[in-house]
Amino acid sequence: MAQLFFRYGAMNSGKSIEILKVAHNYEEQNKRVILMTSALDDRAGVGMIASRIGFERTAIPVKHETDLFETIRETDPHAACVLIDEAQFLQKHHIFEAARVVDELHIPVMAFGLKNDFRNELFEGSKYLLLYADKIEEMKTICWFCAKKAIMNLRIHDGKPVYEGEQVLIGGNESYYPVCRHHYFHPPLDKIEHQD
Ligand SMILES: [Zn+2]
Question: Which residues take part in binding substrate (predicted)?
Fold first, then answer.
């Protein structure tokens, strides 16, 4: 039975490398996969899934107006699996379309992304994945500052933590850190490198 999966984790929890690994496992068995990623994240180029350890693949960029269901049906209605990176940036309609891919095309969809934004609110894509996914799984990573599990994402701008502002700001003078709850509110700023 095809299912809609949501695998979430804080920054640097290895989501992109996991996607590339899953894709590789399918393809090794001569099964076709469809790779997709939000067009909003252009750090590695639009339509690229890049892992921090250096592997990268091209992917179908998902824009605001993209209809996931139609795109997948036109691309490969018999694909073995759809893998979506940066799913936090998807919109409500994308999640509904992904659910239709599972229920009507019977293709499993695995969406990977952040759950909490830097203000510690849910991203839209993550909210609807949490509500509509058949299976939800946490990808664990540890706090940047201690050995606890990181459950939040800290935004640092000019060496200072930021808790308000636009939810999505890519390519600015910002850096993000996976953190535990305590260090989200009390980051040891002397351990953060100035990146400008
Ligand atoms: Zn910590």
Answer: 168-171, 176
Domain extent, residue 46, equals 2-138
Q: Is the pTM of this model over 0.70?
A: yes
Compute, in degrees rounded to 10, the torsion defined by CA atoms 119, 121, 126, 132.
Answer: 180
Catalytic residue among 27, 56, 65, 86: 86
**69 shares its domain with 106:** yes
The number of folded domains in the chain is: 2
On whether both 119 and 76 belong to a single domain, the answer is: yes
CATH number at residue 36: 3.40.50.300
If you measure from the C-alpha of residue 159 to the centroid of ligand 1, how many angstroms do you get, rounded to a whole number?
A: 17
CA 113 – ligand 1 centroid, Å = 21
- How far away, in angstroms, is 192 Cα from ligand 1 center? 13
Tokens linked to 80 = 């073995």
Query: Does a structural domain hold residue 70?
Result: yes
**Residue 169 in this model has a pLDDT that exceeds 70:** no
pLDDT at residue number 192: 79
pLDDT tens for residues 146-157?
999 999 999 998
Q: Tell whether the model's pLDDT for residue 10 goes beyond 50.
A: yes
Q: Is 87 annotated as a binding residue?
A: yes
Tens-digit pLDDT profile for residues 131-143 = 999 999 999 999 9
* CA–centroid distance, residue 107 to ligand 1 (Å): 39
Q: How far is residue 98's CA from residue 95's CA, in Å, rounded to a whole number?
A: 5
147 is in an annotated binding site: no
